[in-house]
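User: Fold this, then the next.

Assistant: Folding the first:
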Amino acid sequence: MSLLECLSKIEDPRRAEGLRYSLLQMFSMLILSGLCGHFGGRPVRRFTHANEEIFIKELALKHPIPSHVSFSTFLNIIPKKDLIAVFHAWTSSFVSLEKGTDISGDGKALRSTNLDKKGEDFASIVSFFCQESGLIHSIAEYRNAKKGEGEIVRLLLIRLKDMGLTLHLDALHCQKKQ
């Protein structure tokens, strides 16, 4: 199953009135921008505008490229749980995990997501990386002021339980639950 087929299963949270771009058109522009290293509303807008002719032709856009506000708003209103569930369905269809497969897990804070004046509440993500295929298998998102990375790793491990995988984790993830 292709990524776009999986993404089409997400319910579009936008109002139908005045909708200029389909869910898949927006995802296509965002994914291609991300693959080329452009993240966030303004960089995505610059990239898509620089390649406007290609996007209009290939995605059959009826309107000019969306504004940076449209890209940012779109990313903020898509339910993260739905997006992660679709990602897991997509990766499970082609990232095979067999007994003995090496999996690395780690968490990272996402730049420019601080909501706390003290600098302690960042949006963070934990990913499990399959070393043989070079692909991410599982992800989970959390706010580091509310949950710890170790707790999120334990939740992701439930998906991989009893598969006979070889896990490579930081010492932080190996702590005994109190």
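Now the next one, as you asked:
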Amino acid sequence: MDTAQHIDITPNCSLTPAGAGRLFASLCLASFSVAGLMTWLGYWPVLPFAGLEMAVLAWALKASLARRHHHEIITISDAEVRITSLDRTHRGEVVFPRHWAQVKLRAPDSRLHPSRLTIESHGRRFEVGSFLNEEERRGLARRLARLIGRINESPSL
């Protein structure tokens, strides 16, 4: 009987579309009120910069809301490790033979960057959990290492 372990990873997205709309509206109100006052006082260049600032904020909120649809499913069976990456428009899948797969938690390039968790085999590598924080990434690495094992080792599921 082929039992499989499934790990579903999703980003923590506490901002809802309604909350993003309220945040954007309140910041637009504050920014354009100040910009309108400054324009009325003769400092007209403030208004285009306020518009640019709100356009960048709208882009950032849209990107943040789109990120909440991303998730990864890691399926570990007796024979293989399958990683499925999904978002609204794309679906990608990578399969590694479990017996040869390695779990590696790579140190960051600098103090300001996060570590990288990869699953590797035969010269191929796939990063998982890029949206997790450090503690969650380390916990996932430990769990994957227990389930996948080292090279030439396939612990029972």
